[in-house]
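Lab notebook, design round three. We kept the backbone fixed and only want residue identities now. Task for the bench partner: fill in a sequence for the structure below.
Input C-alpha cells:
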C-alpha cells in the first residue's frame, strides 16, 4: 500500500466558492485522486483553510505549514509521497512577500520534509505543485490580496526552480486549472475533477 499525504490549503480542503461550504468527498480533487488510483493507494487529506508555507495569522493560529508538518507527518506515518500545494495564502497583503520570497519559503518547507526521514518514514518523495494563478476577485477580497494576481503568475517558474534544485517532482497546476472568477481563488467541481485526474497520472508515473 502506497500512502500519499496531500498537504495544502482551502483548495485541498475542498472549499466551495461563494458559499464556503465543503465539497463532498468524491467531488474534491483528493477524492477524485483516490477513485482514479484505486486499490494499492491510500490518500491522506490534509487541507486547511488559510494554511501558508511558514506564516501564522494572529486571529487564525496554527496556519504555518512549516510548524505543523512534523506533527502531521508523524501522525500519518508511514508516508511514501507528499503532494505539497501551498502559496496562495502567502500572497495576502499582510505578509508582504514577493513571489521569490514565497518560493524560498516553500523551499524551506520542502527541506524540512526531506529531512524528516525516520524508521517510519524512509526516503519521502515530494511532488511540489504551485497553485494556479489567482483571478479577478470581489472588491473586499481584492483588498486582502492587493497585487497578488501579478505575483501569482510568477510562482510556477520559481517553484520549478526549487524542484530542480532539490531534486523533487513537479506539476504545474496552472496548466490544468484556470481559477474561475466566482471568487478568484477557489475551484469549481469540474476543476477539482480535472486536477484530480491529472495528478493521478503524475503520481502513477512516480510510484507506479
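Proposed sequence:
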Amino acid at each position: 500500500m502506497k500512502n500519499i499525504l496531500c498537504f495544502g490549503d482551502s483548495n485541498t480542503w475542498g472549499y466551495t466558492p461563494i458559499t464556503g461550504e465543503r465539497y463532498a468527498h468524491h467531488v474534491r480533487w483528493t477524492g477524485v485522486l483516490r477513485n482514479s488510483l484505486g486499490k494499492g493507494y491510500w490518500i491522506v487529506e490534509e487541507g486547511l483553510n488559510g494554511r501558508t508555507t511558514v506564516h501564522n495569522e494572529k486571529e487564525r493560529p496554527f496556519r504555518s505549514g512549516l510548524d505543523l508538518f512534523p506533527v502531521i507527518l508523524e501522525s500519518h506515518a508511514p508516508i511514501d509521497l507528499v503532494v505539497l500545494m501551498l502559496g496562495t495564502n502567502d500572497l495576502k497583503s499582510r505578509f508582504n512577500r514577493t513571489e521569490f520570497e514565497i518560493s524560498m519559503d516553500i523551499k524551506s518547507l520542502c527541506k524540512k520534509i526531506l529531512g524528516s526521514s525516520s524508521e517510519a518514514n524512509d526516503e519521502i518523495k515530494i511532488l511540489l505543485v504551485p497553485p494556479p494563478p489567482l483571478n479577478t476577485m470581489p472588491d473586499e477580497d481584492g483588498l486582502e490580496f492587493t497585487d497578488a494576481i501579478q505575483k501569482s503568475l510568477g510562482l510556477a517558474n520559481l517553484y520549478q526552480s526549487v524542484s530542480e534544485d532539490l531534486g523533487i517532482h513537479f506539476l504545474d497546476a496552472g496548466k490544468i486549472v484556470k481559477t474561475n472568477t466566482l471568487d478568484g481563488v477557489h475551484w469549481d467541481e469540474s476543476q477539482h475533477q480535472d486536477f484530480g485526474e491529472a495528478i493521478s497520472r503524475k503520481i502513477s508515473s512516480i510510484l507506479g
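Keep this in mind before ordering anything: The domain at 2-207 is CATH 3.40.50.1110 (Rossmann fold).
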